[in-house]
Design brief:
575 residues; alpha+beta; six-stranded mixed beta sheet; four-stranded antiparallel beta sheet
Length: 575
């Protein structure tokens, strides 16, 4: 049964903080953890998570704001589960971030923490709704508004998020799946198939492959193919509903095929980048980029980039298979980004995000797409096309400028052949000789592509180098990777949780540093704190409650400048 957690709002008068010295209380209240409690924990909309719990009268849920906040800290800090619970038990700062005001409270146990993640996954699979993304969007919307951050100019980039899986060779993957299948067989099936499985299960898959000569691999692959075929026919009726059999079936279909009633091994060139990379991560895909191999997902991030902003925040996050092209990601996300930031009119990307389809979407959304580079080869002889009206263009080569003409399917520019004959670029000119002209054919799509690639030249100098700063944002994400440059987790959904938790954490870190650099934005509660400290040690419980009400009223009506971020920062933590 779902219940909101409001216990943190009624703080214990004689809790942990009251036992600290004045200097330590001040240090705790100015820590990032105290701000995390105010800016993140207290602004998590718990009702969004009510769908995860029963609507019948039953045992109430663990506090959702504590679970979500713990998940954010756990992924942002790169803690292990053991680290997280040790900090919840013994770290005063972590307890402050999670709204725990005395040493007796424990918001949830490890099993509840894991079950909560499973509930999030099941809800995502069933409905397609990512509740952590919903929290990110609601927090970011409020932060952008309160900080008055302009969202009209934004930038975008992506990075490879490698899954924490082994890089299997083809033979090793096939053997590893056989080992996993053998583990789930019943005792009787293990006895019946013992002789067949023994060569593959007596050691690890890597040990099996290590013992093979390169010349033996084709023969061994055919033996494995025969075994897969026989196993598939025998096991599909009894094990079809098991997770490992679904993996086994997928591998069987990807690597083998039946030709003339005989099982054969597919050519390696038939395997796609979407084929299974590891039985430990069925979502991971394969991609080679700049000579490096990646297995996992790709994370695409968008952040504000107006030079007038005092700080910039991440506004959109997307996680896709890593074989998804950047231009496809932009095409899928731009409508959603425009919906969240309706004043968006300028998007800065690198060359990988450009496409004709994206040009159309950018026009529809009235967004100027600025690229720092163009995809593909640079033309040896540039043809500059300038729009004169909706249907006509002015086309210039190094020697001539002419008006375009329409054909049935495209447009053309006809250059004087006499002038062309004297041009030094004759041999490499893209225009072809027809009758008395050299004719250059082009389409409206080509014009849009050229306008996009040259759009950066029309910007003032201070706006031409906006995109590279997002590389620093990417670095904030990749710092959480392990020493092999991989995530510390596996699977698409966990990568999604990582991406959104990191985004919430990165935005929070920027806001915290901004507030520390601009203390005038933080409401001054010195007089309230002094009043509270003077009475807490000298009055009984009843009087303290009266004082608390008076102080709360004073804090609520405490006047500050209009541009103050969160008028109640520290109002609760001070008590």
């Amino acid at each position: 049964m779902f219940l909101e957690n409001k216990s943190h709002m009624q703080q214990d008068l004689f809790g942990i903080e009251s036992q600290l010295s004045k200097s330590k209380r001040k240090k705790l209240r100015s820590s990032s953890y105290a701000f995390f409690y105010e800016l993140i924990y207290c602004n998590i909309k718990e009702n969004d998570f009510a769908v995860l719990f029963s609507d019948k009268g039953s045992r109430p849920n663990a506090p959702v704001n504590a679970l979500v906040s713990a998940l954010i800290l756990y992924l942002k800090k790169g803690w292990t589960t053991e680290d997280l619970f040790e900090r919840i038990d013994f770290d005063l700062r972590t307890r402050t971030a999670l709204g725990l005001h005395n040493l007796e409270d424990t918001p949830f146990c490890p099993a509840t923490f894991f079950n909560f993640q499973n509930r999030l996954l099941n809800h995502f699979v069933t409905t397609g709704e990512n509740l952590i993304e919903k929290i990110f969007d609601s927090l970011t919307e409020a932060q952008l508004k309160k900080l008055k951050i302009k969202t009209d100019i934004q930038r975008m980039d992506s990075f490879q998020a490698m899954s924490n899986i082994r890089a299997y060779s083809r033979t090793q993957l096939l053997v590893e799946v056989l080992i996993r299948v053998y583990r789930v067989l019943s005792d009787s099936d293990k006895r019946n198939w013992k002789d067949t499985f023994t060569p593959y299960v007596k050691n690890t898959s890597s040990a099996f492959v290590y013992g093979l000569n390169k010349s033996d691999i084709p023969h061994e692959l055919q033996k494995i193919a025969d075994m897969y075929h026989g196993l598939y026919e025998l096991l599909k009726s009894s094990y079809r509903n098991t997770e490992i059999f679904e993996i086994f079936e997928r591998v069987f279909n990807e690597h083998f095929c039946i030709v003339a009633d005989k099982i054969t091994v597919r050519d390696s060139r038939e395997l796609t980048s979407s084929s299974l990379q590891s039985p430990d991560d069925i979502d991971a895909t394969f991609r080679t980029k700049r000579g490096d191999n990646y297995r996992g997902q790709v994370v695409n991030i968008t952040e504000t980039a107006n030079p007038e902003n005092a700080l910039n925040l991440i506004t959109d996050v997307a996680v896709e298979p890593n074989n998804t092209d950047d231009s496809t990601i932009l095409n899928n996300r731009i409508d959603e980004i425009k919906k969240k930031c309706d004043d968006l009119n300028e998007m800065h990307t690198d060359g990988g995000y450009g496409s004709s389809d994206n040009d159309k979407k950018m026009d529809t959304n009235k967004i100027n797409h600025i690229q720092t580079a163009a995809r593909g080869r640079v033309a040896e002889v540039p043809m500059k096309i300038k729009r004169t009206d909706d249907e006509h263009y002015q086309v210039s080569c190094p020697q001539q400028t002419v008006q375009s003409q329409e054909t049935k399917t495209r447009l053309k520019a006809c250059f004087d052949l006499k002038v062309c004959s004297k041009c030094q670029h004759t041999e490499s000119c893209p225009a072809i000789i027809q009758n008395n002209y050299r004719v250059f054919y082009f389409t409206h799509e080509m014009v849009k592509m050229q306008e996009r690639t040259h759009a950066i030249e029309l910007l003032p100098p201070e706006r031409r180098k906006i995109r590279p700063n997002i590389e620093a944002t990417v670095k904030e994400y990749t710092m959480a990777f392990n020493h092999k440059g991989k995530l510390r987790l596996r699977g698409k959904f966990k990568t999604i949780l990582f991406a959104f938790a990191m985004s919430i954490g990165i935005n929070f870190g920027r806001i915290f540093r901004h507030l520390m650099a601009n203390p005038d934005l933080i409401p001054s509660l010195a007089r309230i704190c002094a009043l509270f400290s003077a009475v807490t040690t000298a009055v009984d419980t009843v009087k303290c409650k009266i004082v608390r009400c008076v102080v709360a009223f004073y804090a609520k009506n405490f006047k500050e400048p209009e541009n103050v971020l969160f008028m109640s920062i520290y109002a609760k933590s001070a008590f």
